[in-house]
Amino acid sequence: MADFHQNGNIAQFHDLRCRPVEELEYELSTFAQTRKISLILPCLYSELEGPALRHILDELAKVPYLHHIVIGLDRATEEEYRHARQYFASLPQSHRVIWNDSPRMRALGDRLAEQGLAPPEPGKGKNVWSCIGYLLAQAESSVVAIHDCDITTYSKDMLARLVYPVAHPAFSYQLSKGFYARVGNGKLNGRVSRLLVSPLLIALKRTIGDRDYIDYLRSFRYPLSGEMALRMPLLPDLRIPSDWGLEIGVLSEAWRNLGRKAVCQVEIADNYDHKHQSLSPEDASAGLNRMSTDICKAIFRKLAADGTVFTPNVFRTLKATYYRSALDLLEAYSHDAIMNGLEMDRHGEEKMIEMFANNIMTAGQVFLENPHETPFIPNWNRIHSANPSFLGDLKAAALADDADYAPV
């Protein structure tokens, strides 16, 4: 059954959970005959050392409709890249491991830096951006899905439900966003979405008034999920943030480029858990501390681009309004946890709210003091315009690395 959330009128689908995954996979295999489906896996080498990724690969090995899998490998030495090649060799599908730290890839980055087009910083955003560039150069796929490599409860069902709305030839959706209940090990999870994004959007609406963009973001049940699927024509013009604002940034780009009817969300799992970031209260450059600031900046930048005027007084009011809204929601979350027999650290979550409130002010100050900040990586249309050979050179570098560095 499909329904439409009260804010933003974004279609959201629940009924796919009621269908056997074999039916979905059969249809997707049919769609894939004319619409090839690829998957991007942004990956740190350290994730090869944990159990989650091995389970993900075991599940992906059973997927019949994938045309190609691109693994973007970050923070890897030559020896580790060779090992990663062997590690991912268990995948029966066509796949490519892109070594983002290879000499060839670094040389390509230097070329972009000379033109002022290099990604501002390494990270998941740059990793995904590079993988998209490779798929654009390959020019074979019609649909691309993206999900993380640390999902401990992964099932191939998740991927089928995620890609179905954008792979179906009779549907007009260009972006499909996954959502799910954030419960794991008897605990209520999803801290940043529950304690930052939801109350921040409520506070923004109370502080600056109604905005269609705020209603749009509020329509997503889990806006920070890393699971999304997109049709390829959207990708050349997609501006990807290089910081922790990736998920919000992609939704903002969909808002900029697409109508609401071209965006949907789909429930992909009953149970979802992954590696949890540390709070890092003493280090503003790490963990949820850094993530919360980057997310706030991403939202403020988009609202400013739509004409909202921010001042120090606005941010002070926003902080106070956020704090009250977050505490009100925390009360409801506490009751929800009790009703469902889940654990919740009430004291710890209040401390987190206090940190997020301070980071709203930090993000606001950075936003006001750096009006020319451009954290977005240039989109691939701009890269191609400035350097028409670059996409081909990126693909050639990935193929050359594959040929020169055999698995150990």
Automatic annotation (TrEMBL):
**Database matches in InterPro entries:** Nucleotide-diphossugar_trans (IPR029044)
Superkingdom assignment: Bacteria
Q: GO molecular function, one example?
A: transferase activity
- Alphabetized UniProt keyword annotations: Transferase
What is the protein named?
Glucosyl-3-phosphoglycerate synthase
Tell me which species this is from.
Tritonibacter scottomollicae (Epibacterium scottomollicae)
